[in-house]
Amino acid sequence: MSRIVVGLSGGVDSSVAAYLLKEQGHDLVALFMVNWHERVGNITSACTWEEDALIAKMVAKKLDIPFNIVDLSEDYKKRVVDYMFAEYKAGRTPNPDVLCNREIKFDTFMEEAMKFNAEFVATGHYCRKREIDVNGETMHQLLAGKDPNKDQSYFLCQLNQNQLSKAMFPIGELLKPEVRKIARQQNLPTAERKDSQGICFVGKVDLPTFLQQQLQPKVGNIIEVPGKFMAKKKLLDLVEENYKKLCFSFPYKPWNGEVIGEHQGAHYYTIGQRKGLNIGGHKEPLFVLATDVKRNIIYVGEGQNHQGLYRKGLFVSAEEMHWIRTDLKMKIGESKEFDIRIRYRQPLEKGTIHLKEDGAYFLFENEQRGITSGQFAAWYLGDELIGSGVIV
Questions:
Q1: Does 247 lie in the same domain as 127?
Q2: Mean pLDDT for the chain?
Q3: Is the domain of 185 the same as that of 239?
Q4: Shortest CA distance to 314 belongs to which of 384, 224, 389?
Q5: How far, in Å, CA of 131 to CA of 142, rounded?
Q6: Looking at residue 273, what is its pLDDT?
Q7: How crowded is residue 79: how many other Cβ atoms within 10 Å of its Cβ?
Q8: pLDDT digits (tens, 9 = 90+) for 238-260
Q9: Which residues of 153-170 are buried (b: 16+ CB within 10 A; e: fewer)?
């Protein structure tokens, strides 16, 4: 049996992961990470890390395994929170959960875990891992969790082979109700605890308030874009003639719209956002179609099916292309079909990746709603996550 450090978060998933490993006879050590201390107006949930740590400690005691706490808040601020602020300032919408996994859970936290002479680090993620032989070399596959409603492979889309080689996902084969059932049967302290929400290890956040700690309000115009501002034929022509025109930019010229209000800063908004515009007089709700942080303009459109919310493709720059399966890395000039996901819990969409010198151009079979700069596009073959990249 192996010596394993299990990351206990105070939630039911990691608790059951620890229980299953204990039942298998492994030598376990529980490690709780502290990533956030501040409570200055930005945390709206009552839950604090102290409460999480107390419950995690109770789980460890119930399972009779050593319990330890490690403070990673300094690294978390530099590598996740500061990155978030920089991305929002640049007009992009980052995914802190993906960053937290890449930079903290499977990097800094994993380093701390290895100090306990661990062979593996286990977490409560709903995903699976499998090893295969490729020309005499072991490759680690990252597979979707068995529960389609809880699959968290997308959040791990930036992991590499070295990180996966040390990772374990004990509940990946289970459905969420099965996890709850095990927790209740074993009388674990987390059995009835609700799942955490909000930013990874920070809590439920009022995002504008959170951002205002670093990004100053700045009044700008809200411009409404007509519903049919571009003919479909022209949009299809762009696909054939020039990928980049379609993938890079919002296909709209600002002088075609009408100023209908003001906002407090374009960097506070994201594509597809409905709340926070505070503008009435429309039959259907307004949605953010695009933001321009340089000119401090927000473009909006009426109705959830507004043409400006849909795009045929996206672009990932060459330096942002990340391959989990390094043996399947495409060559420049190649095109290949994948199942693609542009946000957590979104159904996989059929598309083709065209790899050029400057990066990868993704073209979908069906137009996609709300493609957002700064988010991650992840591509799959079947239930295996092959790679990912930051959307330009």
A1: no
A2: 88
A3: no
A4: 389
A5: 9
A6: 93
A7: 17
A8: 334 444 444 444 444 444 688 99
A9: bbbbbbbebebbebbbbb
Q: What is the pTM of this model?
A: 0.89
Helix then strand then coil, % of the chain, to nearest 5: 30, 30, 40
200 has catalytic annotation: yes
Contacts of 74 (CB under 8 A, 6+ apart): none
d(CA 309, CA 291): 12
Given the residues 100, 127, 157, 247, the one annotated as active site: 100
Structural domain total, the chain: 3
CA 218 to chain centre: 28
The answer on 113 and 17 residing in a single domain is: yes
Average pLDDT over residues 301-328: 94
- Are the CB atoms for 289 and 306 separated by under 8 Å? yes
**Cβ(385)–Cβ(378) below 8 Å:** yes
Gap between the Cα atoms of 352 and 330, Å rounded? 12
* Distance in angstroms (rounded) separating the CA atoms of residues 300 and 286: 6
| The two structure tokens encoding residue 216 | 């100053």
Q: Which residues contact 346 (CB under 8 A, 6 or more apart)?
A: none
Q: Residue 62 pLDDT > 50, yes or no?
A: yes
CA distances in angstroms from 119 to 66, 110, 116, 392, listed in the order given: 16, 10, 9, 37
Residues 333 and 386 in one domain: yes
Q: 122 with 194, same domain?
A: yes
* Tokens linked to 370: 């709300």
Alpha-carbon span 172 to 16, nearest angstrom? 11
Mean pLDDT lowest among 27-36, 84-93, 173-182, 312-321: 84-93
Catalytic residue among 127, 157, 200, 247: 200
Cβ contacts of 195 within 8 Å, gap of 6 or more:
11, 12, 13
127 is catalytic: no
Query: Among positive and negative, which fits the CA dihedral 276, 280, 283, 287?
Result: negative
Residues β-bridged to residue 195: none
Q: Are 83 and 94 in contact (CB under 8 A)?
A: yes
Q: Which of 110, 16, 21 is nearest to 56 (CA)?
A: 16
